[in-house]
Amino acid sequence: MNHSRFNLVIAALLFAVIVFASGCSKSNKSGSDTAASAELTHEELVAAAQAEGKVVVYSVTSRIANAAEAFERRYGIRVEHSNLNDGALVQKVSTEVGARIAGADFVISQDSGRVYGQLLATNYLVNYVPPSLKNIIPAQYQNPLVFQFNNKVFIFNSEKTQTPVISNVWETTEPQWRGLIQFKAPNIEGVNMNFLTMLTSPEWSERLAVAYQNHYGRPITLTTPNAGFEWIKHFFDNGLVLGNSDTAMSENIGIKGQPQTTMGLFVYSKSRFEASKNLALMPMTEIEPFSGFMYPIFIHLTANASHPNAAKLFIEFLLNAEGFEPWARDVGAYSSNPTIAVNEGDHPIAFWESRLVSEDPQFIFENRAQVEEFVNNIAFRK
What we know:
About 45% of the residues lie in helices and about 15% in strands. It is of the alpha/beta class. Helix 4 packs antiparallel against helix 13 (about 320-330), helix 6 crosses helix 15 and helix 9 (about 225-235) packs parallel to helix 15. It is globular, with a radius of gyration of 25 Å.
C-alpha cells in the first residue's frame, strides 16, 4: 500500500470512529439534555403540539380532568388522562418506559422516594422546565420539577374549644390522647411513610429530642436508634387509629356531638368541609417541632413520550394560573409558581416550610425500607 493510500485509509477509519462516538454520545444523552436541546419558541411549541394532536397523562390527582378540559378548549389538543394512586403510577411507568411501550407522555407523581429511585435515577422520567418559567419558579423546585405542594396538618374537633389542644408533638403519645388520634395507614399512601422516614433523619430526630426535653424537662431516654424512631413507637403505641381515607378521617374527627375531643393528622384541604358538611375542624400550626408535613407533587415528561411537544405545552399550561385553577379553588394546594396566589385564608409556602416536615427524596429512598419494617412491627404485630 503506498503512503497516500495508507493516509486515506487511516483518515476514513478516524472519521468512522468519530461518527460512531458521536452517535453513542447522542444516544446516551439523558432525557433532560434531550429536552433542553429541543427548545422551541412558544408559538413553535403550540404549532408542533397541535400537529401531534393529542397528549396522554397519568396523574395522582383527579383534578387533572378539569385541567384537561380547559387545555382542550384553549389549544384544541385531545387529552387522554388516567388517575392512578402513587404506587400504581410508579409501577406502570416503570413497566412501560422500561419496555419502551407507548403510554404516558408526561406524569404528575408523588411519593418522592420512589419517584427518585425508580423513575428519575433510571432516566424513565425527563426533567423539563418550560423556558417561560425558568426565571419564575424558584431554583430549588426545578430539579426535580415540582408541580405543587400539598400538606397534612394536625387538626382537632373544635366544637368544645377553639384553643389548640396540643403545643408539642410528644403530647400525642400521652395517656389523655389514647385512642383519640387518627392517621392514614402508612402502607396505603407513600407520603405518610415518607413523613415517618424523615422523622428518623439526623435533623428531625434532633429536633424531636430537643422538643422532648423542652416538654418534660429532662433528656430523652432511647429504646430505639434515635428520637425519631422513639416518637413513632410511642405515637403508634398510644392506640393510634389508622384510617384508609383522609376524607373519612376528617368526617370522623369533625363530627359534632362527640363525648371527647379528637384529632387527626390529615390533608389540610379537608378543613374546607367544615361549613359544607357541618363539621368542627380546626388546624393547629404552632406545634413544636412540627405541625404536620408537606410533600411535593412532581411533573415530568416520560423518556419515550409519543407526543412530547403536546406534553411540554400542557406542562407549561398547568404551571400557570389558568391551568392550576382546579387546584387553586381550595386551601392546601400550592403551585411551585410563586406568581399564583394561594387561596384566600390560606398561608404561602414560606409559612408552611418553617412549620412542617419536608421531604428529602434521596434520604427517603435510602432509608424508607428500614422505617417500613419498624412501623410494620409496631402497627401490625398483633
